[in-house]
TrEMBL record:
It comes from the Bacteria. This is Phosphodiester glycosidase family protein. The lineage of its organism: Bacteria, Bacillati, Bacillota, Bacilli, Bacillales. One of its GO terms (molecular function) is hydrolase activity, acting on glycosyl bonds. Residues 177-356 form the Phosphodiester glycosidase domain.
Length: 357
């Protein structure tokens, strides 16, 4: 069966009529349609979008920051404490050092005061040398107190640097540019030459071998530690143990360990009084040299050895040794002859002690 256009239109109208009518009803009824809120997703807070792991990490970072701040504060306190402790320790060290040196200073002042006031002095990193005038009842002379600070501050030299040679203390001091000089050991003349008496050591070597002590002879010198060594040695090994650096021989020993030694009868009157040269030491290893003036060797001027012993005890010396005296006694200080040689001029001698600044 064939439908016409008009019939089709009628059919469509009949089919759609219910829907059209429903729409018209809704419009005329002024109704609105709304969906429940559950139909839409809720909006989350901004912080809620951060994963839980991130939040935990931030918490850990905050804790680490607090720990770092605490550690930094602790380090600052530690550094401050260290600086304060270091300053305190430095102060303590300085105090201890000054206190440690105080007994030596007090001792030096005491022994210096016993001698008197220095007339002249030399001070350097090598040596401290103080020259004193001595005025006793029966004689006058000089004292030279020496503190050696270097192994180059003192040495013994031969006359003209030759075994058998001789020269004055002044000539030796000038030749070596020494600040001071004193005659050393005894000597014996032979064939126009002047040889050191008995055992003599120079630069750690025996010049003519070791000679055992006999009669009243002794050896005196310095060892490698700049300490005065001396006495009677019957065997070379005894002296070797002392490690002598240099030294000479003469007679007699005057004092040992602060005790005056018995003076042989011969040396009490041959001569009774005379110019003297003496070497001694103190317990702090300072050296003391005495040079006593005398205008002749007849025994009418100068000092007796007993008087020298009294002087050494008064000055606080420990050991004392009589060196060559008479016309040999010589003391040079800063290029000048200090004493009054009994010969009227300085005598050439084979050994001299020289001091350097």
């Amino acid at each position: 069966m064939t439908l016409s256009v008009k019939q089709l239109n009628r059919l469509a109208l009949l089919t759609l009529a219910p829907f059209i009518g429903l729409i018209l009803w809704l419009v005329t009824a002024n109704m609105s349609i709304s969906l429940p809120s559950e139909s839409f997703p809720k909006q989350l807070p901004e912080t809620a979008v951060i994963p839980a792991q991130t939040e935990s990490l931030l918490t850990q970072l905050d804790q680490a920051k607090q720990t770092a701040l605490h550690t930094a504060s602790s380090i600052k306190r530690t550094i401050k404490l260290y600086k304060a402790t270091n300053e305190s320790m430095s102060h303590i060290v300085k105090t201890v050092s000054s206190q440690a040196g105080r007994p030596a200073l007090v001792y030096d002042r005491r022994i210096t005061r016993a001698i008197g006031s220095p007339a002249r002095s030399v001070q350097s990193d090598k040596i401290t040398a103080q020259l004193f005038n001595i005025h006793a009842q029966n004689f006058s002379g000089y004292a030279l107190k020496v503190k050696l600070k270097s192994d180059k501050s003192m040495q013994m030299v031969l006359g003209k640097d030759k075994y058998g040679g001789a020269e004055t203390t002044l000539a030796a001091a000038r030749r070596y540019q020494a600040v001071a000089g004193i005659n050393a050991g005894g000597f014996a003349d032979q064939n126009g030459k002047r040889y050191p008496l008995s055992t003599t050591v120079l630069n750690g070597k025996y010049l003519s071998g070791f000679e055992p002590t006999h009669k009243d002879l002794f050896f005196v010198g310095l060892n490698k530690d700049l300490k005065l060594i001396g006495g009677k040695f019957n065997d070379k090994s005894q002296l070797d143990q002392q490690q002598p650096k240099f030294g000479a021989s003469f007679v007699p020993v005057l004092m040992k360990n602060g005790i005056p030694q018995s003076i042989p009868a011969k040396w009490q009157s041959s001569p009774t009084r005379a110019p003297r040269t003496v070497v001694a030491n103190y317990k702090d290893n300072q050296l003391l040299f005495l040079v006593i003036d005398g205008y002749n060797e007849s025994g009418g001027s100068g000092a007796t050895l007993k008087e020298i012993q009294i002087l050494l005890a008064r000055f606080g010396a420990i050991d004392g040794y009589n060196l060559d005296g008479g016309g040999s006694s010589s003391l040079v200080f800063n290029g000048q002859v200090v004493n009054h040689p009994s010969d009227g001029v300085l005598r050439p001698v084979p050994t001299n002690f020289l001091f350097f600044k």
